[in-house]
Design goal:
55% of the residues lie in helices and 3% in strands. The protein is mostly helical. The radius of gyration is 28 Å and the shape is elongated.
Length: 279
């Protein structure tokens, strides 16, 4: 039985100079909006290859998988359709996200490997290619058969080499999860509480902090992602001022006391290192 043909791509290229459409998405929604479109392209190329189904349920799952605010995601997709990053007609008629550019890139990458499953979803015309049997041979003008075996072996080696290079390029691309280490991804309330516990923050109103930035899609007034860990420290300092100084001297839990001691030791170690550095 013939092996099923692989539809998805292992990687796709990202332009080093973003198009005006993508720059406008970033200008309106910040890095989070830009990343959302890139992740949608991952969903397309890594799934059906040249389109993905898009409705309320798939949007909800996508937002949860990538930890993108659901309302923000819906706005980004709608704007991406309006800016023709995705084809509006295909979305309205079939409920899919695709575009001519996506299809041209995809079918150019897979060449003879894949035939479109549903021609109704196509925005481009497939190139007409002759079906050639693997066992077929050519005949020269003098009637001698030319064996294609060696040529096929050479092509197979070239394809394997290209696939290996593609996989290496894919591994070198920065993943969306890498951004989270730089505090770009918005946190959950649980992550905020965990970070406050780790740092010993006791005055900041965690729920108020979460709601405040969630309403702003975790973006600053300039549209850049909020560095929430740094801002959480600022809020802790501000909220601490609201309490009388005598209330600062209170009974700490065992975990809080350990955190205070740990911070004190870290500060002491830092000062010792700085003092010795001046000698």
């Amino acid at each position: 039985m013939a092996r099923p043909r692989k539809k998805e791509l292992d990687y796709f290229a990202v332009d080093v100079h973003p198009s005006t459409k993508m720059r406008l998405i970033k200008a309106e929604f910040g890095l989070m909006g830009y990343a959302a479109v890139i992740c949608l392209l991952q969903e397309i190329y890594g799934g059906e290859g040249y389109y993905c189904y898009w409705d309320e349920d798939s949007a909800l799952l996508f937002a949860n998988d990538w930890e993108i605010p659901f309302d923000l995601l819906k706005k980004v997709v709608q704007r991406a359709i309006e800016r023709k990053i995705f084809d509006e007609g295909m979305y309205q008629q079939h409920g899919i996200l695709t575009s001519r550019e996506i299809q041209e890139f995809y079918f150019g990458a897979v060449k003879k490997r894949v035939v479109a499953d549903d021609r109704a979803f196509l925005l481009i015309e497939e190139e007409k290619e002759e079906e050639v049997s693997a066992a077929e041979t050519e005949v020269s003008a003098d009637g001698n058969a030319i064996n294609k075996t060696e040529e096929n072996k050479t092509k197979e080696k070239e394809n394997k080499k290209e696939e290996k290079e593609e996989n290496k390029m894919a591994s070198d691309l920065p993943s969306f999860s890498d951004l989270s280490s730089e505090n770009i991804l918005p946190p959950t309330l649980g992550e905020i509480e965990e970070y406050c516990h780790e740092k010993g923050y006791v005055f900041v109103d965690k729920r108020r902090f979460f709601d405040h930035f969630a309403e702003r899609n975790w973006q600053t007034s300039k549209g850049t992602p909020v560095d929430w860990k740094r801002r959480l420290g600022d809020w802790e300092a501000e909220d601490q001022k609201k309490f009388p100084r005598e209330s600062w001297e209170r009974v700490y839990t065992k975990e809080e006391e350990e955190a205070r001691v740990r911070r004190a030791m870290e500060d002491l170690e830092r000062r010792i290192i700085e003092d010795f550095a001046d000698i």
